[in-house]
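Hi everyone, sorry if this is the wrong subforum. Our group has a chain we'd like a structural model of before ordering constructs, and none of us has done structure prediction before. Sequence below.
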Amino acid sequence: MIVELHAIQSFGPSNLNRDDTGNPKDAIFGGVRRARISSQAAKRAIRVSDVFKRTVNAPTGMRTKLLIEQIVGGLVSRGYDEAAALAYATNVITTLFAKLDKKAQNKTNVLVYISQGEIDQIVAFAEQAASRGEQPDVSELIKSFKKQMANRTSAPDIALFGRMLADSPELNIDAACQMAHALSTHEVNTAEFDYFTAVDDLQPNDNAGAGMIGLVAFNAATYYRHTRIDVEQLVTNLAGDHELALHTIAGLMQAFALVVPSGMQNSFVNQHAPDFLLAVVRYDNDGQSLDNAFESPVRAKGIGYVEPSIERLATYWDQVDRAFRLSDPVVSVMNPRRFPLPSEELNAATQPDLRAWVDVVIDAVSKAAES
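Answer:
Right subforum, don't worry. Here is the predicted structure as tokens:
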């Protein structure tokens, strides 16, 4: 079973996701340059968001090079000797997850994506050994840990986005969620620039010069966004916890609708509600990206890009999606501005608000699990 999420979302002047030059990211598609938001930026914004954490109601993971400090801090707070805790944590982390960074003390050489449950397990193992008056048998912990945590996690975000550990492939987790790079539905040639000056408040009155000057790059665009969830993979990653899987899907859906990358948000205010949302539950195939609805760039025609982008998406849905489906999917739509939809199926599936949009999907996934 696949759950697909699609969105049309317009942003005013902003720089949501910068490249190495500070300009908004872009890509060539359909022979023209488009504005782009990377999947990495979108995934991080979702997994650290309050709305995702509240909805899943379970401890989420962390990506860090400071894992040794986390283990040491947990043990020392329980009365463990600091030097012994450091030796234990270093041995465990370098054996289980990653080598040490040669240039930084007590840091791993890569970011490790780990759940709080895994950290607690490592701390508890040493604490239990200490309670017996023994030194922890690290080899026994490693063996037990790899057996228990292979292909599973307690962290909803790790279950969604997966984990890759080059030094310990036994602990890799296949991602249950694929997230596309968001692309503008229309051509965006180049970034624009805000030339700004700042005044030194304490400079003498006879000095009219600026205290500093600078340039900030930005653009404005209407994006098509898309992600898909493999429900079976998600349940497997969460060790068969169907209830947590449902909370995770609901959390991802709400965050997909409400959360955007925070790049330069204080300069531009990036919080824009989606103009159109489409969720699809498919039972018998891999699902579809609808990117190709915009392979030919949308033209504004004096009415902006949002309305013609939604019209293009709905037309493509009726023409292409219906031709390739193997069975009828469950469809849920949000069209808050009530743009005309040239699709009877999408019109019939339109929901009144975000909660109802999510509930249609959760109900469909729940009924499938029960059967």
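For your construct planning: The chain has two domains: 2-57+176-189+218-370, 63-154. The chain has a mean pLDDT of 92.
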